[in-house]
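Title: Request for sanity check on NOP2/Sun RNA methyltransferase family member 7 prediction

Description:
We are preparing a figure and want to confirm that the structure record we downloaded matches what your pipeline produces today. Could someone re-run it with the sequence below and paste the raw structure tokens into this thread? We only need the token string, no images.
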Amino acid sequence: MVRNKNIGGHHSRSSTCKTKKAGSQIAASKDLTPLDDTAGGDIPAPYPELQTTGKGQLGFPDTIYLLASVIFQNNHLEKPAAHRLVDYGKERGLPLPEVEDEEMQRTAYELAFNTLKYQELLEDIMIDSCFYLSQSTADDQMSLVAVMLYDFQDRKFLPRKRQGEEEIIQTVRDVDDILLRFKTKLAASLARCRIKHDLLSIECILPESVKMKQERSSCLPLYGWVNTMKSSLDEVQRELRSAGFSEVKSIGQLDGQTFCLDPHCGDVLVLPAQLKAQLCSTKLLSDHKLIIQDKSCSLGPNAVSSLLPEEGDVLMVGCLSGLTVSHTASLVAKKLEANGKGQPTVYVCVGDRTNAQREELQRVVTAMGCKNVKLIPEDFQSLDGGDKRLQRVRVILLTPKCSVSAVSNLVEYILQEKGDTDLLQDLSQGSIAQSKLEALVAQQRKDIDHALKFPKVLAVVYSTCSSYPEENQEVVCRALERAKTCSEQEGEPKRANFSLRLSPSPFSIPDHAESPAETEHFFVLEPSEDSNGCFLAVINREPEPVVEEAPHEVILRANARGILDRIGSNQQRARKEKRSHTNKTAKMTNAHNSQSSLSVSMQSRNQEMLGSMTLCGHQPQPLQGKAKALQSQASKNTVSSPFSSSKHDSNSSSKSEKSTTKKSIQSVLNLTSSTSSLLPAPPPGTPLVPVVRPRRAHQEVLKPVVLVLPRVHFPDFSPPQHSQIEFSPSFDYNQWRSPAPSVPLARSSLTKDAIVESRPLF
């Protein structure tokens, strides 16, 4: 049986259960039940090897018994009236007696916790021995009887050794005297209960999970973090070596006066549990240079220190002790001091604590030398991102109240971390009541949901000492889903480019570590003989990753959600319509060009006819004068062009001249044909083609060109006298012409299309 018998608070190894053969020997000796010893002497224990033994501690001071009885009264299992064997009264929630010594307080809690474990067995002994029925003990004193009875059987029903200096409490002394007078019957009842249940040891009646925790708690090593406000890691290691300690590489090598560094936290040292008394002699503990605290409490501060940016504060929420607050404050102050930055502020929500608890926390923080801690008296749920005090908070450490089901040394942990003592009764039976677990999970969800609402917070560290997934992974995953849903519904522009996601664990697992288990995003430390268990997760607020998508992929994704109303198909239809319109425009342009060619051909034909009339002497003078005027006007317009100052070379100039010549001739012919009454009208069936204005091409500088046509001389002849003039295509009028000197065109050459041939008109 593991119990706290020494002032140091260490447990003794419990005796292990023997084989079934030993149980059969007990059954064969039922007639050896001890008789009642009214003289109060030592009882002849028939099977002393089956009794659990302590370390020679024969009882405790009266104050410890009284405090343990109040703790048991507030936390004992209250059965229904039909199944109630012993009545402890109706009073619960009694105030605890003041005990200044922390070791005495720890011992009282250990005694009360062990009594809760064996409440069923102790009640059977009191009923079977007729102690409860024969003694006129008040119901409100039965808690004291149960506590003292457990200690009485643990010291093998030996009388308590009293000290004269201790405080005397008469109620405690009276119960002690009654137990001594009834010790033989009580011992006989215990023996019958063990035979009835076939117990080699009273520990065998406990649930397997409780027995395993008892065994682990007896050999857990000491963990201590270095207070950088008072000392440094190197200085603490030098003092340990000077005190006779030697450093080893791993926890598995701890033996004797040794110590090692923790594999996860760089500022935590690990020592064997039996060296606590020798460690106190080094003054490292009294000078607050090395702080003894469970490892699970050091993981959160180390994670916060690694996540905090150069400029930012920390907000701590939940079930926190002054040691955890001081550890966080010292780590972040040391980190930013090394970077040349000022000390960040560590805010602590203490809205759910009494004034005495706030004063205690402030006292511990001051003793550790931390000056960057500020207490917030409001409740965490009443705070929001608009609070002026929290504008620089970038990391939140959330350690909510949990079931501490992954902790082996429950009493020591709850007392050191100011935990919930109401869990002692459930933990003494190895499981948490479903109603209590649901209440804890509801509060945890409420806290983490509120922590994720702070828009300027970059990371939330969530840490528990529970082994239940309902309090760990499920809470974190549900909070992320809820935050994502709320963000999509609200659509806040400030959060549009940011998302909350789990970050990889900030702690790495060394090769030699076998007990820790780590997933991709969660850090899970399983309970073992080397440490208690814990769970830690980090939720970061990070920018959304930029995903490069092609335009058609964006349109397809938008159409799939029904956002753009099938804009992709509309664009394809628009492309087809645009392509069709382009084809129609090209056809219309070709038709226009064909019409222009036809017009030029007709104009050439008309010019031939005019030339023939000129040859015959029938050209009207006004028409010739008008043509000359139009030709002169076209030349002037060409000369007065704003692009007349050209810098092109001769080749480009020659090409411009050719182009200009063609355009000028065509312009003149068009103007001439528009004024002539001899031109035939366009056929009535020809549709009018709309003019399509082409894209404006690159403009070139044009130069004026003067056209000089050669003179044509014809011989005098008299046309034949016919009533009708007929035109003979075979008639060659060129033979009438006398040779004329050819005049070359200056800087120009006319194509065949530009040369006008004159034919006689008959």
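Thanks, this matches our download. Residues 567-616 form the longest helix (50 residues).
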